[in-house]
Amino acid sequence: ILRRGSVRPSMAVIHQKGKMTAKDRRLLWMIFVIFGTFVLCYLPITLVKATTKGRPKPTLNTISYVLIYATVCINPFIYCCLSSEYRQAYKSLILCKADWNLSSRSNNSNKT
C-alpha cells in the first residue's frame, strides 16, 4: 500500500506477497549457482587446511589455491550464461558499442 505523494506511480512496483516474478526466480537461481561454485571452489582448501595440521601436501595445496583463484574467473561466465542483461552488456563492451538507452536514462533521471 502506497501513501499519496510518497512514491511516484511510475517508479512504484507492487508485488503480491509470496509471489515471485520470472525475473526474480532467474536472479535467485543465478545467486544459488554463484554461491554453489564458491562453496565448491573453497571447500578443498578448507579441507586441506583442516586435515593436514600445518603440513599440507604441495600438490593438494596448489590445486586448492588454483580453485580459489578460479572463482574469480568463473563468475563472469556464470553471469553471462544465466543473465541476458549481462550477455548484452558483455556484447556491447566487446564490440565497443555505446549503450545509448543507458545514457539517455541517466540523462532523464538527472533532469527530474
TrEMBL record:
Residues of the G-protein coupled receptors family 1 profile domain: 1-79
Transmembrane stretches, start-end: 27-45, 65-82
One GO molecular-function entry: G protein-coupled receptor activity
Pfam families in the cross-refs: 7tm_1
Keywords: Cell membrane, G-protein coupled receptor, Membrane, Receptor, Transducer, Transmembrane, Transmembrane helix
SUPFAM superfamilies: Family A G protein-coupled receptor-like
UniProt membrane topology term: Multi-pass membrane protein
Subcellular location per the Swiss-Prot or TrEMBL entry: Cell membrane
InterPro entries according to UniProt: GPCR_Rhodpsn, GPCR_Rhodpsn_7TM
GO CC, one annotated term: plasma membrane
Family affiliation: Belongs to the G-protein coupled receptor 1 family.
Protein name: G-protein coupled receptors family 1 profile domain-containing protein
